[in-house]
């Protein structure tokens, strides 16, 4: 997932994406522990995608807080 794709999503879509990525991360960890994981590189991709989503969410939250401070 590229950063442009993440930035194009709404808040609800980001939360849903984050939930899906965390579920996938759990499943990948479980597969690795049981020796069934074939695509080891997917763990790294999912971890980075989670970081991208959380970064965009935090940027938006900070921008909203800054806008609120300027208003009030």
TrEMBL record:
Xref: NCBIfam families: L29
GO biological process: translation
Protein family according to the UniProt entry: Belongs to the universal ribosomal protein uL29 family.
Lineage: Bacteria, Pseudomonadati, Pseudomonadota, Alphaproteobacteria, Acetobacterales
Signal peptide range in chain numbering: none
Pfam families in alphabetical order: Ribosomal_L29 (PF00831)
CDD domains for this protein: Ribosomal_L29_HIP
Molecular function GO terms recorded: structural constituent of ribosome
Protein's organism: Caldovatus sediminis
PANTHER family reported for this sequence: 60S RIBOSOMAL PROTEIN L35/50S RIBOSOMAL PROTEIN L29, LARGE RIBOSOMAL SUBUNIT PROTEIN UL29C
InterPro entries: Ribosomal_protein_uL29, Ribosomal_uL29, Ribosomal_uL29_sf
Record-level GO cellular component terms: cytosolic large ribosomal subunit
HAMAP family with a match to the protein in the record: Ribosomal_uL29
Keyword annotations from UniProtKB, A to Z: Ribonucleoprotein, Ribosomal protein
Stated name of the protein: Large ribosomal subunit protein uL29
């Amino acid at each position: 997932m590229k950063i442009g794709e993440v930035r194009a999503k709404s808040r609800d879509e980001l939360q849903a994406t984050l939930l899906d990525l965390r579920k996938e991360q759990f499943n990948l960890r479980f597969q690795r522990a049981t020796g069934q994981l074939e695509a080891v590189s997917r763990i790294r991709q999912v971890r980075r995608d989670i970081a991208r989503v959380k970064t965009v969410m935090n940027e938006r939250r900070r921008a909203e807080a800054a806008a609120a401070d300027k208003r009030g």
